[in-house]
Write a structure and sequence with these properties.
The chain is α+β, with helices and mostly antiparallel strands. The chain contains 14 helices and 32 strands.
């Protein structure tokens, strides 16, 4: 049988195996994929299912991590989406990440309509789209009902479109159910593991999977060597849709604690745990988190969640799927505002706590930045940015050793900075000019303050540097030597204007104001036509 060299989940711009940590690794991995085509054409009885699939075409453009005022070259992605209501199409978040233009297209590419993102969750790797204005050809299509959870061994159909509109179907079986990070590393969700040989076709960045004529999930990765695919489970999709349809998307909830396994025998004896028991050690409780508000403390041992007992590795026994990690009990089927019971061991005694789940708060150091340009500030040639993992990864393959040590330390120990900052502002580089003589080689240094005031985020730094000190000299306090940078305010203002005259598009891009939970609640209530408690009291 002839073997084709084909990148499965990449069309026009390959992005590679979603098992990779980033889209760049994703691309490199899939460029080497060798697939064996086992094409199966679709019969008439399946035409109704096909009527629910559309091509999703996205123009993608990201920003340069090192020069955040510049955009990278645009790229195109093409995958498939599934119509789940007359105006709702679901696909993978990675498919539309950083999109500047989005369209939905018929299988034969004869009709198209512009689309927009209604809700997106990069952690769960799901996006809900809708047409802009007139739904056009979508109005004649039939939405698919979402399938009930499947079982291990069940057959699943995966769908693809050829360039000419011909539909290909691959039948695979569910080999296992696990948790997996299908896009952003460190964020694992309930996933079906399929076994089956995929086929070569266009528009295959992401694909729909069905079971018994109903939409089962979104296929996000394929390993050609093992013929293994990953499909986001329907429980996650249902939870995502329930949140997305209630007026404002809040995201999957979090508990807000760090855990440690209790497999070590000596550690278990120290904690007072039995030899055959389970439990997870609570190594940290995030302040103001649901766990903190419920009364959980560092040193507690988490024994059960909603009555499901945890073993010493953090697994519980799911009635249909077998052993799964405990985070499934938080993220699968639960939404913000739901209450869970936590059975803990403290000082040798069992206790039951009740926690109300909340939306995940943005981390001090974002792992990824999507759909928003990175903030920056240029003052007198000093380039300031907010630290993100994406910035550090721009140092290349060996970024963990090549990136500045102070920034790497901050990424690995964010708790050392959380109490005093909203983000970590750092001096990224220096653009040589008369205002920065002697500072040309500085970079990769965390900013602690400016003009005698602490700096909590880049917007605060911009405000502090906008005012001219009485002595005409700005001072910028750093975490590393030389400790303080002295910047002549008048000269730096002149340099700023010269940069603009020489073609620099802007001197700053500051983040939008982040809404507090109370503000989010008010907006959500107004969107639903309701009154908040504050409004009623007034």
């Amino acid at each position: 049988m002839k073997t084709l060299s084909y990148t499965l989940l990449a069309s026009l711009t390959a992005t590679g195996s979603l098992l990779a940590d980033t889209p760049e690794e994703h691309s490199a991995a899939l460029q080497k994929v060798q697939l064996t085509p086992t094409t199966e054409l679709v019969g008439e009885k399946e035409n109704q299912i096909l009527d629910s699939f559309v091509r999703v075409n996205a123009t993608i453009q990201t920003f340069n991590a090192g020069q955040p005022w510049q955009r990278n070259n645009p790229q195109r992605r093409s995958g498939l989406g599934t119509l789940i209501s007359p105006t709702e199409i679901i696909t993978a978040a990675e498919m539309v990440a950083n999109q500047t233009y989005l369209e939905l297209e018929s299988a034969d590419s004869s009709q198209s309509v512009q689309a927009k993102v209604v809700a997106i969750d990069y952690k769960a790797n799901l996006a809900l789209l809708s047409p802009v204005g007139d739904p056009g050809f979508l109005a004649k299509k039939t939405p698919l009902e979402i399938a009930k959870p499947a079982k291990i061994g069940d057959p699943v159909n995966v769908w693809q479109f050829e360039d000419n509109g011909t539909t290909l179907k691959t039948t695979a079986s569910i080999r296992a159910v696990d948790t997996s990070a299908t896009f952003l590393s460190g964020n694992s969700f309930l996933t079906y593991i399929l076994k089956g040989s995929m086929q070569s076709a266009s528009s295959s960045f992401t694909l729909p999977a069905t079971r018994n004529g109903k939409f089962l999930g979104v296929l996000t990765s394929y390993d050609s060597d093992d013929q293994i695919s990953e499909v986001i489970a329907p429980e996650i999709i249902e939870t995502f849709l329930r949140d997305a349809r209630d007026g404002i998307y809040e995201g999957f909830p979090t508990l807000g604690c760090a855990i440690q396994r209790t497999e070590d025998k000596s550690f278990r004896q120290y904690l007072g745990l039995s030899e055959d028991g389970g439990g997870l050690y609570i190594s940290r409780v995030k302040p103001d988190s649901p766990a903190d508000k419920a009364g959980m403390k560092k040193g507690d041992v988490l024994l059960a969640v909603d009555g499901s007992e945890l073993d010493r590795r953090g697994y519980f026994q799911h009635p249909d799927y077998g052993p799964l990690t405990w985070t499934v009990l938080i993220r699968s089927g639960k939404t913000v505002g739901d209450t869970i019971s936590l059975t803990i061991l403290r000082d040798g005694k069992e206790q039951t706590l009740s926690a109300t789940l909340e939306a995940t708060q943005p981390p001090l150091i974002p792992r990824h930045i999507n759909d928003s340009p990175p903030p920056f500030l240029i003052k007198g040639g000093l380039v300031f940015q907010e630290l993100s993992r994406e910035y550090l990864r721009a140092f290349g393959d060996n970024w963990t050793t090549r990136a500045p040590l102070p920034l790497m330390y901050a990424m690995e120990n964010p708790e050392d900075y959380e109490e005093e900052r909203n983000s970590i502002v750092f001096l990224a580089r220096v653009l040589p000019n008369p205002a920065t003589i002697g500072y040309d080689r500085l970079g990769g240094m965390i900013v602690n303050g400016a003009n005698g005031q602490p700096v909590k985020d880049i917007a605060e730094l911009a405000a502090l540097l906008e005012k001219t000190p009485a002595n005409g000299i700005h001072t910028i306090e750093l975490d590393e030597a030389p400790g303080v940078i002295y910047l002549d305010a008048e000269i730096s203002d002149q340099v700023d204007q010269q940069f603009l005259q020489q073609g620099l598009p802007t001197l700053s891009r500051l983040p939008e104001k982040k809404l507090s939970p109370a503000e989010v609640e008010t907006i959500a209530a107004e969107a639903l036509g309701e009154k908040t408690e504050t409004e009623e009291s007034e």
